[in-house]
Structure formats: structure tokens, C-alpha cells
Amino acid sequence: MTSSRSIKGAGTLCSEQSPVEDAAAAVLSEEDALAAAELFKMLGEPGRIKILHALSGKERCVHDLAAHIGMGQSDVSHQLRLLRNALLVKYRKEGKMVWYSLDDEHVFSLLSQGIEHISHR
């Protein structure tokens, strides 16, 4: 028979790990939890998801993005600015043209896993 431990104010533990063992396990810091929440908040707008999805195949300019996803250029520019500030997209200038792409493979993975997840419904 296994025994359960309790922590003052926390009730009975479900695992056999002691509080010391639990503390030694990786715990998400408050700072990291807030940063992750901000990331998911940024992904919580359908227009931004469409932009990221459009950029998952290739880099595009604002004009092409707007035409591809059916949004106005000023709306796309505004969303791109938010996505840049959140380090989800990057840009490069070529003369007067500005080309946008996903910041790195993590953004692509996050987006594709989210889309794959909803397809399992």
C-alpha cells in the first residue's frame, strides 16, 4: 500500500515524490510563463495566423500577403509590426521592397502543430 503525503494548504499529493523531489524537477518560472502567455496571445488573432501560414511557404511582401489572405495592406502592415515585435517574423529590405518571412523554424513548428492539433477534432 502506498502512502500519500500532504503539504500544508495543498492537500494530498497524488505522486510518491517528496516536496524536495518536486522542487528539484523543472518548474516554469513566472517570467517564462508570462512570455509564453504573450506568445499565445499573439497567436490568438485569426489574421495573424493567416499571415504566419502564408509566410510558412515563402517570404512575401505586404502587397502579396494582403492579396493572398484577403486583408487590406494597412491591416497587414499593422499585424506584421506586432509579429515582428513578438519575434515571430523577420524582414529584409531589397531596395524599396521589404520581404517578410517567419523568424525561425520554431515559429513554423508551433504553427503547424497547432493546425495539426485542430485537424484531429
Could you please describe the fold and organization of this structure?
The chain has 121 residues and is an alpha+beta fold. It has a single domain (29-118), classed as Arc Repressor Mutant, subunit A, CATH 1.10.10.10. Helices cover 53% and strands 13% of the residues. The chain has six helices and four strands. The protein has a two-stranded antiparallel sheet. The longest helix has 14 residues, at 105-118.
In short:
The protein has 121 residues and is of the alpha+beta class.
Helices, strands, pairings?
Blueprint: E1 6-7, E2 11-12, H1 19-24, H2 30-42, H3 46-55, H4 62-69, H5 73-85, E3 89-94, E4 97-102, H6 105-118
Antiparallel strand pairs: 1-2, 3-4
Under the CATH scheme, which class? Mainly Alpha
Order of helices and strands: EEHHHHHEEH
List the quaternary state of the chains: single chain
Spatial strand order of the main sheet: 1-2
* CATH fold-level name: Arc Repressor Mutant, subunit A
Q: Please report the distance between the alpha carbons of the first and last residues.
A: 40 Å
Mean pLDDT, nearest integer? 88
Q: What is the beta-strand fraction?
A: 5-15%
Query: Could you say what the CATH architecture is?
Result: Orthogonal Bundle
Task: Evaluate the radius of gyration.
Answer: 21 Å
Structural class by SSE content: alpha+beta
| Overall tally of domains | 1
Largest sheet: 2 strands, antiparallel
The number of distinct helices, counting runs of at least 4 residues, comes to 6
User: What spatial form do the alpha-carbon principal axes imply?
Assistant: elongated
Question: Spans with pLDDT under 50 lasting ≥5 residues?
Answer: 1-6
